[in-house]
Amino acid sequence: GDDGTASALIVSAFAVAEQGQGSPSFLRTLAEAAGKLTGEPEDRVPLDFAEIAQAAMVGQLAHQGANPADFVPNFKNYLAYNGSYTTPPCTEGVRWVLLNNPLYIYQQDLDAITALEHKNIRPTQPLNGRKVSTSIPA
Questions:
Q1: Is the pLDDT at 18 greater than 80, yes or no?
Q2: Angle at Cα 40 formed by Cα 35 and Cα 42, nearest 5°?
Q3: Distance between terminal CA atoms of the chain?
Q4: Among 6, 101, 121, 126, which residue has the fewest nearby CB atoms (within 10 Å)?
């Protein structure tokens, strides 16, 4: 808002494609639907938001070489800052929460979702005086 507070919240998780790693079912559902979407309002992809919350806010252990004793769930393991949308006109007023644990995904699912988004990746921006807070212990 005008007082410097965020008017939108975006929670973002990194996707990592590795051989032998699987996709959460909600990402499989999105990837399978990606090629069929036309942009019409009746295009709907049913998703289980409880599963999304579980996968995103907890995170996933890596299947290879993970130590469960060292795992810190995402709700205790994130960075946050006030920023802007990543699509034009890049309006300010967004509270970004970046989850530290990645979501593991099949490469073909990542490719399908990326194709749907048309590689809509904004270049990294300078902090411009923004303060980044973290829940990650030093």
A1: no
A2: 100
A3: 31
A4: 126
